[in-house]
From TrEMBL:
Origin species: Catellatospora bangladeshensis
Tagged with keyword Transcription regulation: no
Domain MoaB/Mog: 172-315
PANTHER family noted in UniProt: GEPHYRIN, MOLYBDOPTERIN BIOSYNTHESIS PROTEIN
Protein name stated in the entry: Molybdopterin molybdenumtransferase
Molecular-function annotations in GO: metal ion binding; molybdopterin molybdotransferase activity
Keyword Iron-sulfur: no
Amino acid sequence: MSAPEDWASARRTVHAAGWRAQLPPVAVPLADADGLTLAAPLAPVTDLPAFPTASVDGFALRGRGPWRVHGQVLAGSVPAPLAADGTGVEIATGAMVPEGTEAILRVEHATRSGDLVDGTPKSEREWRVPGEEAHAGEPLLPVGTPVTPGVIGLAASCGLDALQVRPAPRAAMLIFGDELLTAGPPADGRIRDSLGPSIPAYLRRLGVTCENPVAPIQDTLGAHVAALRAALDGGADLICTTGGTMHGPVDHLHPALAELGAQYVVNTVAVRPGFPMLVAAVPHGGRTRFVAGLPGNPQSAVVALVSLVIPLLAGLTGRPEPVLPRVTLGEPVPGRGDFTHLALVRVDPVDGLARPVSHVGSAMLRGLAGARGFAVIPPGATGRAGDAVELVEVP
């Protein structure tokens, strides 16, 4: 087996692999675009605003006062021009400003008697001019921008009905292990599968379409190959597997990948816990699909998810490699020699410092359930109280 790849390098490698295999863009109605990624720059089809728009309630005026008011202009209507000096029209916020307007007098600054109004308009303009926010065709957001409710609102204001986006990847989850139970308490040498229900939930929080697995796959090479092929035939862009990433007597993932013609993108990573993780590229249906082999120990599987699957998905959907936030350690965190140490931490809501949690064995989930994420201690280093370190957040 080759030497494990450096953790930071492995993240860059899988992101680049995903980037090269990006899903083809699709047009999606605005209501369905939340959580996807722009595949084309967001640009308005008209100037924003498209016409002069009142910023306040008041009176649109021409010439010197007092002014004789003729009717009103509400939002959504096209007003007649102000053709004569000394005339005006009542106007609502958001309404189209009549041609010929020289000033808008705020309603709170106006004195009105019948159809006459007087007052002193502000010297600054009280309406928005066409193109004040953006010009037609001007790129406002670049390719790779995650679509949020704010982006959807901006797109609607730009006059768009749909967005060009990268679609949500489809994932399949395969659980390996004859020793696993899918219901009831552990007993008689068998343990409860904790990853089958949890990993798909993590993936869905990452914007992936994923169903829970039906049952664990039998510990035979034939069953592994058949399950992988079925997932590929079912349209999975990503297959996450748990267990079988080493070379023990019932670890069939590596020979199954070989039978499918897969090529390793990353095969083992110099990180603790979870180093026997992998990502492989599989040609299928005219494009590249991926298998992410997560270790069978639960915490190690989540380490593999945040280490490799998250940057892979970013590349696959056309997003940049994730930038990790930094936190300040409130307590020392040991290093792991030549390996990167991903140490589970919570972030104190009072002082904002990150502190290690307890019960963090690779087979344990108790510590993970109460953690914010993993503090990154680089190879050859030790985390000291007061150090600022990267944080890999758990989805």
